[in-house]
Amino acid sequence: MASRSGLKSVARRAGVSTTTAGRVLRGERNVSEKTATAVKEAAAELGYVVNSMASGLKNSKSRLVAIVVPTFHGSVFSEAIEAAAAALREHGFQMIIGESSYEVDQEEEAVAALLARRPDGIVIVGTRHTPRTRKMLESAGIPVVETWDIADHPLGANIGFSNFDAAEAMGLALIKKGYSRFGVISGPAVDGNRALQRLSGFRSALRKHGLQEKWCEIVPYHHVLGNLAEGGRHIVGLLQKRARIDCLFCTNELSGIGTIVALRRAGTKVPENIGVAGFGDVEIASLIEPALTTVRIRGREMGLRSSQLLLKHIEEDEDISGIVEDVGFEIAERDSA
After folding, report:
1. Which of 214, 216, 212, 211 is nearest to 235 (CA)?
2. 3-state SS track over 240-307
3. CB under 8 Å to 317, separation ≥6 — which residues?
4. ∠ Cα 155 159 162 (to 5°)
5. Sheet with 247-250, edge to edge strand ranges
6. How far is CA 259 from CA 35, 127, 219, in A?
7. How buried is 200 (Cβ within 10 angstroms: 0-12 exposed, 13-18 middle, 19+ buried)?
8. Pairwise CA distance, residues 123 & 77, whole Å
9. Domains of the chain, with CATH numbers?
10. CA–CA distance from 42 to each of 11, 90, 109, 138, 142 (Å)?
11. What's the rounded Cα separation, in Å, for the pair 128 and 146?
12. How far is CA 265 from the centre of its chain?
């Protein structure tokens, strides 16, 4: 794990004094635009993050651990946060949280802001990052744990599961139940993100049986996460316009829950008229009527193991780089499909 890129390195690369570099990075205005640009570019290239804590604390522990999650909506990530926070509290650490809104650029902003607080470790949901985010994390000199996916090249440790395998298993389970005309509701599937992996895994299951989905609709996350009822109505509207299907697979859990609620209000019976399956198994999934068939994610286990690994590094100075643990998943077969 690389050590923090210092202010001297930034100044040297920008061709200015450390005093001038410090003024620029503190946001002071008494520097020319050309110089300010050179310093900022050098800092970005080196992954340097301005330390908002007192310089006198440089060599002490902050007793803070950072975590970046895609959203605060629903409970799919809250279980992981609660488990991680509980384990950390037992060792005298507190958690600070950032939100990425499922966008790598916003994740970059969150990581920069959190690293400025000098956390002793960081957990990130996901393995897809901007080049600057990777550089900041590699230069931070703290343990990193990526979760919710299995990385080809982990930044540090990796606690997750295969989104492809989980969605493929769900597809095979639904086909075994007799479904053959599928529709899919997916979040934006780009650049190897989890939505794309789930979509690809589900399609793999269909191909194994000589099938393909009748249609696939990409629904921006804010359509569902911002208002569950409105998101469900939006999806039901799509169902009415699209080719007839006998089962709908939603790669996001809240899409599945909102769809079931909206279908019932529209007088469509689930699963008699159409089956619905989701991905995530938030608490309400088993409480709605009919209960949602879904992929059960072991979020609590991922949160706990992430904290345990960070503590091994922070308190025992044990190198956790390269540790990869697959926590697996389960298919929760319920009444909706």
Report:
1. 216
2. HHCCCCCEEEECCHHHHHHHHHHHHHCCCCCCCCCEEECCECCHHHHCCCCCCEEEEECHHHHHHHHH
3. none
4. 105
5. 215-218, 182-186, 247-250, 275-277
6. 54, 29, 13
7. middle
8. 12
9. 1-48 (1.10.260.40), 62-161+299-327 (3.40.50.2300), 163-297 (3.40.50.2300)
10. 8, 40, 17, 16, 21
11. 9
12. 32
Residues 299, 300, 303, 305, CA torsion sign: negative
One pLDDT digit (tens) per residue for the chain, 337 residues: 333 457 888 999 999 998 888 888 877 777 899 999 999 999 888 888 766 554 434 446 889 999 999 988 766 799 999 999 999 999 999 999 999 988 999 999 999 999 999 999 999 999 999 999 999 999 999 999 999 999 989 999 999 999 999 999 999 999 999 999 999 998 888 888 999 999 999 999 999 999 999 988 887 665 555 566 666 777 888 788 888 899 999 998 888 998 898 888 888 999 999 999 999 998 899 999 999 999 999 999 999 999 999 999 998 899 999 999 999 999 999 999 9
> Do 224 and 254 touch, CB atoms closer than 8 A?
yes
CB 253 within 8 A of CB 231: no
Q: Which residues pair with 160 in a beta bridge?
A: 326
Q: Is 65 left (phi over 0), alpha (psi -120 to 50) or beta?
A: beta
Judge residue 57's burial from the number of C-beta atoms within 10 Å of its C-beta, 0-12 exposed, 13-18 middle, 19 or more buried.
exposed
> Which run of H or E residues covers position 97?
strand 94-99
Facing residues of 89 across strands?
Answer: none
**Phi/psi at 219 (nearest 5 deg)?**
-115, 115
Structure tokens at 243: 């080719």
CA distance 128 to 122: 15
Burial of 65-85, coded b for 16+ CB within 10 Å and e otherwise, reads: bbbbbbbebbbbbbbbbbbbb
